[in-house]
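Q: Please design a sequence for this.
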């Protein structure tokens, strides 16, 4: 079942409505804007109940400053879990106060979800620099979610549905927020096996794909070109992949695909120049930019960051706080809408 079907209410158990917590992110960024726009679309909330987690005063003030016209929903019509914040917060300027506020909103949403009050969390964007200014040294929201949930094995899966063909792009990162010079030393057979385990489980649990075709990227240009452009592929990655194929006879594991060509078929499937069946069900990228440059080029306005391995559903729009356009009324809510719809779809599929 896809997000459009969920939005239209075509479910086998119409009585179930996922309860989603939506921490409003950094109040100085575009999170409030895209959230209030997304929730103004009746299709987005047709089959879920959303509760905003944040400072009610900020929501009201933001709506007063920017909510002229018909594209924003009035916050007074929404369920709000009030979390008071302090300090000077100015739209468009991320600082320690806005970082502290966004951290406290997410902490509250996690606690309530772990307590069983919500089925999932849809997070608005935060600024890592603002978190750091406030004294919180986390690479991102995913790592805080995993820590609070007591989970060591987790992943960042990016999902985008093509508006041209309906084909779904799924890209999992083996490593996430690391300096590039640390990637090769961080990658190990154990880490790769753990990420592949998460991906296979997620494809089955979230998307109903029991025998997936998965593309796995090489690390070096031309996947090392038989050791001429890097030795990792020859030394351990190819032997690891051969072991995984033996361990998973029902799966198709293609690789190690040169990073510069792995994304050709996804692009063709996205725009309809090849049959969707010729693309893979998922793509395992080895580091942040290797996986996210193609995702953002194809699906920047509709990709969803989905945390896998957590004991609850978590999605997020695949963009940042965009302080430079915050408060101008020009932020695109498409990715936030997609994040809410995907969370609704996954939560509903788990309930059936």
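A: Design:
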């Amino acid at each position: 079942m896809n997000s459009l079907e969920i939005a239209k209410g075509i479910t086998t158990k119409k009585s179930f409505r996922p309860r989603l917590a939506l921490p409003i992110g950094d109040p100085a960024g575009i999170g409030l804007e895209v959230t209030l726009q997304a929730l103004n679309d009746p299709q987005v909330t047709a089959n879920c109940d959303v509760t905003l987690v944040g400072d009610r005063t900020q929501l009201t003030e933001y709506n007063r400053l920017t909510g002229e016209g018909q594209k924003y929903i009035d916050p007074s019509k929404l369920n709000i879990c009030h979390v008071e914040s302090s300090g000077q917060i100015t739209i468009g300027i991320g600082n320690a106060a806005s970082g502290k506020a966004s951290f406290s909103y997410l902490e509250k949403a996690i606690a309530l979800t772990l307590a069983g009050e919500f089925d999932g969390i849809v997070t608005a964007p935060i600024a890592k620099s603002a978190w750091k200014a406030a004294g919180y040294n986390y690479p991102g929201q995913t790592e805080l979610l995993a820590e609070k949930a007591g989970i060591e094995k987790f992943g960042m899966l990016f999902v985008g549905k093509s508006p041209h063909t309906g084909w779904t792009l799924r890209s999992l990162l083996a490593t996430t927020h690391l300096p590039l010079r640390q990637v090769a030393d961080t990658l190990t057979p154990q880490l790769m096996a753990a990420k592949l385990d998460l991906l296979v489980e997620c494809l089955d649990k979230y998307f109903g794909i029991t025998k997936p075709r998965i593309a796995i990227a090489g690390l070096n240009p031309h996947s090392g070109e038989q050791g001429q452009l890097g030795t990792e592929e020859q030394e351990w990655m190819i032997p690891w992949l051969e072991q995984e194929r033996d361990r998973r006879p029902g799966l198709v594991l293609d690789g190690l695909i040169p990073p510069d060509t792995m994304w050709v078929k996804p692009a063709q499937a996205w725009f309809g120049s090849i049959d969707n069946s010729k693309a893979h069900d998922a793509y395992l990228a080895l580091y942040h930019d290797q996986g996210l440059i193609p995702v953002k080029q194809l699906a920047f306005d509709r990709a969803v960051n989905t945390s896998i391995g957590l004991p609850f559903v978590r999605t997020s729009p695949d963009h940042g706080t965009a302080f430079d356009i915050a408060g101008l009324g020009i932020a695109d809510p498409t990715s936030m809408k997609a994040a809410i719809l995907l969370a609704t779809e996954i939560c509903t599929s788990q309930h059936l």
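Q: Thanks. Anything notable?
A: Residues 153-309 form a domain with the Isopropylmalate Dehydrogenase fold (CATH 3.40.718.10). Residues 1-13 have pLDDT under 50 and may be disordered.
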